[in-house]
């Protein structure tokens, strides 16, 4: 939801820091964005709408992944990711502990990458 909140072109930033990536979004994330769009108001609703439009209009693959029984979204992201893009500090810490590459917004201006990039 960074593009709506901070006016950062995340696709251009991802290309800058990870030039040989394939950007994929799990289907459970798009469902969560739809829920936020329907149930939230204000900035969160707008940010979810922008994120969904970005997914639809860009070369972003939505992969069909379901949550396991009683699995939380964050746990599923850690299970399936090689590179995780998040601003959630708790999730960043958990990803680093699992030795995943983490991409996050830095200084509200650009994306930074941390961790091993042996993709």
Automatic annotation (TrEMBL):
Domain of life: Archaea
Domain annotation VapC9 PIN-like: ranges: 1-108
SUPFAM superfamilies for this protein: PIN domain-like
The protein's name in its UniProt record: Twitching motility protein PilT
Transmembrane segments: none
